[in-house]
Structures are given as C-alpha cells and as structure tokens.
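dumping this here before i forget
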Amino acid sequence: MSAASRIWTTIDFERNGKHTDYLRLPFSSDTSAYGWLPIPLICIRNGAGPTVLLTAGNHGDEYEGQIALIKLAQEIKASDVNGRILILPALNYPAVAAGRRVSPIDEGNLNRLFPGRFDGSPTEMLAHYIDNVLFPMTDLVIDLHSGGRSLEYLPLALARPGLTVDNQRSVRELLTAFGAPVSVLTDGDGGGGATTLYAAAEKRGIPALTTELGGGATLSPVGLGVAEEGVRRVLKHYGIVPNLDVEMSATSRFMRSLGRNVAIYAPENGLFEPLAKVGDMVEEGQPAGILYFYDNPLRESLKLFFPANGMVSCRRFPTLSARGDCLYNLMSDIEI
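structure:
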C-alpha cells in the first residue's frame, strides 16, 4: 500500500553533512505503549550527485555486510562525497539484536515482505518505508547478505536481470563495478522471488544488487573483503566518493542461477553428509551427499546425486536436516 509511512526520523535528507539518527518504527508493547524500535541510519550528503542506498542486516544473522557498512560509515566524511549515501547497517534491527534471520517482534522476514504495508506488522511497515520513502530518492541499491545460520555460500553478488533493456544494461554495469569474484543473474525462484528488497528496487527501475558472502552465522574474512572492496568500487565508479583508495581492476565471472528445478532438497529428516564444497564444478549424476536416519540407524542411508552440471553456489551448513531443507544450489556460466 502506498499511504504515508508511520516511520519517522529526525534526519533531513536534503541537508549537507554527515548525520546519524534512527528510523523510528512505532511499536506498542506491554512495557512501552507509545514506543518505537530504533533502526540506525547514517546519511552523508554533499551537493548534487547520485544517491546510493547501502543496507545490511536485512537478515540479522548475516554479518559481513553489517561490519563492512559500519566501517564505511565511520570512514567516509561529507567532504569526500558528491551526492548522497544512505547507510542502514542493521536494517532489520530486532533480528540483528537477536542474532536471528527474522524479527523476534513479529517473526517477520523482511526480505520476503516487499513492498510491505504502511499499517501492517512492524516488519511490513519497514518494507513499506524502504519502498515508498527511500527508493524514490535512490539511484543505486546494494543489499548485503550472507548465508546465515543455515547455508554456506561462495562469496558472490546477485542481481535480477532487469525489466527493460536500459535497466538490464545498468544492472550489468553495477555488477561489473562491484567486482565480486562471481556475479549471478537470477529471478529469485529459489528464494523470495518478487518479495525481496532488490526485486522491489527492480520494479522501480533502480539498479540493485545483493550478495551472499559466507554463512554459518559467523564472519568470513574473505566475504568481508568482498563486501568492503565491492562497495568502495561502486562508490568510486559512479563518482559518489571519487577519491577512495581501492583497486578498480577486479574481474567477475558472470553466471546464472539454475534455480529450484536443479537444487537439491532433503527428501526426509536426517543427518546430511555433503560430498561437494561450494565452488566445486559438478556433473549430472555425481554423488552429492548422503542422508543418514538417526531415528532408524539400521535403515540403509540415502544417497543423493546432482541432477545437472554446474558450480555449487551454496550448501546446507547444519548437519541436522529436515524434509524440504535446501542442501545445494547450482549455477552455470553465461556469455556477457
């Protein structure tokens, strides 16, 4: 819904300088009848130029992006900037504070609730604010993710293909500028589809990318480096922070997600032994893993096989698995 947001902030987005406050998300509880939830926001503005929206903590148990954006927010001065940088390093703040994928306030998965509702649950109100207040002032979007507690990911950037020829071109430019080791084009059919933050940006014609930078609800030094350098390259490439010290010659391997039709899901409850690592090239019919039945130890274990050729983009991180858990996703090379 497009009615005015109930969320507010003291930040004047048109004022030059480096300003910090919160998005104040109204939340009435037993202990705070007129309370609000604090979502940290940094706005750095200096004159005319593009606006970039940088977010992390969309899922609270994904840490590379959160740390990368905190470090960036501390470093960048207003005098460094041509345009405006909006930084939200703990976007779904209740989930971040709890170390959870979803908000403990309403069990809301922010990256499955776009475009949100102005009068919905707290997480729906947050999605609505991003879509209706922040997106209209934004020229570029980077939403930094990792695998969280359930997945291990090869460090990579992802983007939807774009709805128009111009948008497709601008998305490829953004991916190339970010320069992750692997760049993946996807329609999101194995995840949130059209309900994600970067899908909502695509609908508005805004070039947007997301990332997967590690997993297991811990910090990957490699993934952190990809996030830090990628964001800095984008800021320099688009002239938003032109004097940043960053290597600009990174090259990215462009691939496409093979989607849910060739993903492997646990067919039953069990203990999963993976036989391939993220980044491995695999072939159709190759053993992928073994599922052991802890509730029936003498039952013959179930062997799983890859249904197609490709590269492993992610695998399940916990050993304990339930029917329907994603065990592997695959991707393959494309020509650009």
